[in-house]
Design goal:
The complex is a heterodimer. Chain A is an alpha/beta fold. Chain A has helices at residues 15-19, 36-39, 52-65, 101-111, 123-128, 131-140, 185-192, 205-217, 261-267, 287-300, 307-317, and strands at 73-77, 92-95, 116-122, 144-150, 153-154, 160-161, 196-201, 221-227, 277-281. Chain A contains eleven helices and nine strands. Classes of the chains: A alpha/beta, B alpha/beta.
Amino acid sequence: MSTIAIPNEILPRTGVAATLPVPAPLADADRKPLTKKETAADHPTWCPGCGDFSVLALYYKLIEKRKIQHEKITTVAGIGCSSRFPYFVQAHGAHFIHGRALAFASGVSLSRPDLHVFVFGGDGDAFSIGGNHFTHTARKNIKLTYVVMDNFVYGLTKKQTSPTSPLGFKSKTDVLGSTDRPINPMKQAISAGATFVGRSTATNVNHLLKLMEAAMDHDGFSFIECLSECIEFYPGAFDAAIPRKGGTFPEIPAEHDVTDEYAAYKLTDAPWPGMFGTFYKVNRPTKNANEAKLIGDARAKLAGVADWQILQKNFDRMK
Amino acid sequence: MSDTTATATPDGSRVSKVSESVIRIAGDSQDGIQAIGGFLARLAGRSEQDVMTFMTIPSTISGGASIFQVRIGSGEVLSAGDEADVLLCFYNHSYANHISSLKRGGIVLYDSDHVSPDDEELLGTYRHVGVPISSLTVEAIGGTGRDKGKNIYALGLIARMFDLNVPKLTKLIEERFGGKDPSVLKNALDCFNGGYGHQIQGLIESFQFEHADHSGIPQVVMSGNEALAYGIIAAGVRFGAGYPITPWSEVMELLRRELPKYGGTFVQTEDEIAAISMALGGSYGGRVAVTGSSGPGISLKTEALGWASMAEMPIVIIDVQRGGPSTGMPTNQEQSDLNIACFGGHGDSPRVVLAPSSVEDCFYTAIEAVNIARKFSTPVIILSDQAIATRIEAFACPDLQKVCQDISPDFTPVADHKPYDLTAPDGVTRHIAPGTRVASGKYPVATGLEHDELGHPTGSGKLHTQMNAKRRNKLRKLGRELPVPKIYGATEGHVLLVGWGSSKGPIEEAVKLGRLQGEAVSALHIKYLNPLPNDLEKLFSGFTHVVVCEINDEGLYGHGQLASLLRSRYCDPRIQSVTKTDGLPWKIKEILTRALSLTK
């Protein structure tokens, strides 16, 4: 007869904090929107002038505008400059390993449908080491928002070629210029089955905020490629998309049918700096909804039956 | 067969009472020989007998030679048995490859449509009984020209030979085939009755099992993989993720099928890395999640496992070991993942490793793994193996109402919270699940970077030292709480056989055999492998030799993986090992002979 030496027990919360009285929490309706001061945590470690600062500022703004409370947000990231995000936000967060943030965030989303799950990362994290997860999270349409701060270069490791570096880009790993065809993130996302695909820049803050809001409201896997300049290793990369630097910001025309996959696909081929806005948006059942339905169907036949009794039925069949 | 007492019947054949018997069925994997074995094991379970099975599966995609061995006993059955009492074989190749597994004087029952024994020596050594099983099967089901169902026909023959309980067997057949097309059940019953009613020519002996003297607790019959999966459910786990790989897949298939009934989900992911990552996301969500794999997949998971050590995130990882390295021997038994389980990954990444020793133990170990993960906020690896995963055993049905537990997350608001609190008196990390309000407005981050008490990154060497100590010391605390294992046999003697995982049964049988032969041999089974329980050195001190028996390679320095671990832990040169990597479970005589020859 086997025994269980370590029973089901959880140690009580300890430390100084455990002895402090917990003030009676306000009802959600009475809570004020979080200000930037309340949402900001560690001071970002990014280089002055980095495009990621504006994405972070917009995230604070989104949280304030949409009155999301600390504990309802989960910020997840992998590895890279931009992936430092969770430390800069006063909310539950997880800083996972390189390339696997989406898989981790999927686990959070599927097991905790009550949370807003945001994933932030860079181009290396998303399209090189994490390429497989990008494809499958899109295909499964897992409900979460993924913002890729695409700077076309590896910044944290100090200037190596990234999967989105353009042909001819000179880096420490391609001193004579990159020869590998870059990935087109919009194309990748649409063909993988993402149900919300948008593109913006860190410099056009109003455009990006609107897109982030739309992404958050989308019921499914929402993906934003945000061109975010690396001031240190690829300065001027996105000048062509910044009007005040002499560039243009070509927005997707209002008449574009966002549910038309082929039309969206065609837009992705626009010449540099490409198009900005929502390329594609359709409603397809999420994995979250599909799993909830499986559970609902299975549970419908088991109303009022305790978990141990369900298991007992299986065991009785094995007698 | 032991303890036989024979009585003669009027027609001249004998009926012998037996306490146990080993039946080996050899054929091709598509013949349904596992089904025969499964029925026999189930029947034994319902008759309160002990039973253990052993099977080999070809790693080919379809077909290939396969065996299924069942050992049924009215007393304690610890292993699937070294030699068979009865061999049932369907083909010449089954006959040729397995006749030597039969005891001298044992019965070989063969399909005379396909097998034609002609070796005089073999004919003289074993009792040969030929039955044209294939053609009789075709006849029994009305001549469709196909012999599908010959396995059930053979089951009927065995039922006659062992005077098995026909109503119980019929009920099992009805349960198995009842849900299908009625003609399927009819054919199965026709086959069974045909076999049972067949007058076997040349069989001069039949057998009856002695009445089993069990406590009357109903038994359940299942495989190790099933027991692990059901244990995970009983433990309260409601989320998991995995990627298919032999021999782990069965666990994930079962969880995928069953978890929705309990409001849970199991996700088939794109790869092994996504599987552990997603499960860690689930655990981070507040309720311990599960992932698993076999050798190659465990290698892929080690980076994320390191994150779990660093972030101190509870998770249960099941490793159903197979032959390695690389793709290795996917359908064979090996215990060669102990090193990767205890040490795999970069950096110092403490984790807990446990190994179940039987199918029943798989069920309880799964629950214990979840409890350890929760209490100590740590990754826990369960080391099962191919043999325990696929073998079927009967065990007392657990008291599920008592055993099933609730591990729902606690969202009670807190004033302030530091998950990696260095001043926690027990030194154990506590996470609060997302959704928990923190009155101070300071929220923690779960991270793989070295961090401060709130989970924010640090480059401080002092904090790295303190946090490394914290992660290590909590497992030392667990080590002190673990039960010290008990010696099987005398606590003093010449040789102490040490084993882990699925080798427990054969090692304890080797002790029984050794004692019968006058050897001062005992055994110690170690279930908790990392951390090890305290006081093992005191148990070792009663013996001149400590011999670890493990199914892995002796390595560069001549010691198996557990032996190396114990030697480094106890600096005791008496610790030696006998190892092997033939892909098969230990034979009892093999253990004893090799261990004794090492100590002579």
